[in-house]
Amino acid sequence: MKSAAKPAARKPRSDGQRNRERLLEAAKQAFTESGADVSLDEVARRAGVGPGTLYRHFPTRDALLESVYRTEVERLAAAQRQFSETMPPAEALRAWMRLFVDYIAAKQLIAPALNTMVGGPSRVFEATGELIKTAIGALVENAIENGDVRPDIDALDLLRALVGVSNVASVPDWPASAKRLVDILIAGSRP
Questions:
Q1: Which residues are CB-contacts of 66 (< 8 A; sequence separation ≥ 6)?
Q2: What does the CA dihedral 157, 126, 68, 10 come to, rounded to 10 degrees?
Q3: What is the CATH number of domain 61-189?
Q4: What is the pLDDT of residues 9-68, one digit of tens each?
Q5: Around Cβ 122, how many Cβ atoms within 10 Å?
Q6: Pairwise CA distance, residues 150 & 188, whole Å
Q7: Which residue has the higher pLDDT, 162 or 165?
Q8: 111, 123, 139, 165: which has the fewest Cβ within 10 Å?
Q9: Residues 178, 176: Cα–Cα separation, whole Å
């Protein structure tokens, strides 16, 4: 007896996709401004949709938090490709590292909520960590090949330096300080 073939997944309608994107952006802004406990009705209001639309896309707060986090990581990976295509290698690396500082700031706001998710944040972080490592690895490799940075520079060392700054993020202006650190790291990486 043959098993029935699964129907192909239907492509989301364009208005549904736009609503999803607006919800993710509104949630990111709301989480940044008010923390991860912001009302989901507030997120829907900011996105200009009803609560039913929010729950159709994200049935739980955890689903919304995880989607915001994943979307930020995917944007970071996409930025690596865009920067590599449009900028000289050293400038692409600098721009991506500065964007990574913004990602860390958003992650710090969302991380406490991710910690409450069933299964904890590790499954989310594990799934997205490779995207980040691959992105910075490609940028450093391009900069090395172009002669912009020394060949002994390890991409993960640069990443660890930025993450380390975020761990002492006790002052409100730490992202600005971290972005200055990016310039110092790039200068110190030159041949």
A1: 114, 117, 124
A2: 130
A3: 1.10.357.10
A4: 555 677 888 999 999 999 988 887 777 788 999 999 999 999 999 999 999 888 898 888
A5: 12
A6: 9
A7: 162
A8: 123
A9: 5
Please, what is the Cα angle at 132 between 126 and 138, to 5 degrees? 140
pLDDT in tens, 112-154: 656 555 555 566 667 678 888 999 999 999 999 999 999 999 9
Place of tokens 């995917």: 74
Alpha-carbon distance 93 to 109, whole Å?
25
Q: Alpha carbon 180 to chain centroid distance? A: 20
pTM of the predicted model, to two decimals?
0.76
The DSSP H or E segment spanning 68 is: helix 61-86
Q: Domain segments of the chain: what residues?
A: 13-59, 61-189
Identity of the amino acid at 72: E
- Residue type at 168? V
Domain 13-59 has CATH 3.30.390.50: no
Tell me the residue type at 104.
Answer: I
